[in-house]
Amino acid sequence: MSSAASDAGAPQRRLAFDQQLPLQLGKQFRLQWEPSQGCHVLLYPEGMVQLQGGAEEIMKRIDGKTTLLGLISALEAAFPGADLRDDVVEFAEIAHAKGWLITRAPAEL
After folding, report:
1. 74 neighbors 62 (Cβ within 8 angstroms)
2. What is the rounded CA–CA span in Å between residue 35 and residue 86?
3. Which residues, at least 6 apart from 39, have a Cβ–Cβ distance to it below 8 Å?
């Protein structure tokens, strides 16, 4: 079943950002594998955030081209049978509020 078909009956949640725009890392953040931590980390001038589990899987797929809907589809394809939409949306909203994720405006595409 396509993602659009499975979402047709679900109530649409109002997001803090446009889910049709590609997501990218905030300008002061860099994602990298940190062997000493055993996980991906999000580096920024004041420190770092350890990413594990679902957060790590989400952030590894942020490429500046993929929208939130595309991200959800990719994760559901990687983890068949899991309904990840609400969890991904919740994480994306938190990450957006913290500046980890930003959307690319159409002029930037």
Report:
1. no
2. 30
3. 33, 50, 51, 52, 56
pLDDT above 90 as % of the chain:
73
Question: What's the mean pLDDT when you consider all of the chain?
Answer: 85
Q: Name the 3-class secondary structure at 28.
A: coil
The SS3 of residue 23 is strand
Q: Distance (Å, rounded) from C-alpha 69 to C-alpha 109?
A: 17
Task: Look at residues 51, 45, 46 and name the one whose alpha carbon lies nearest to residue 31.
Answer: 51
Looking up tokens 């078909």, which residue turns up? 5
Q: 68-78 and 85-97 are packed helices; what angle lies between their axes, rounded to 10 degrees?
A: 130
Mean pLDDT along residues 48-58: 94
- Give per-residue pLDDT as tens, 14-40: 566 788 899 999 999 999 999 999 999
Chain length of the chain? 109
Q: How many CB atoms lie within 10 A of CB 43?
A: 14
Please state the pTM of the whole predicted model: 0.79
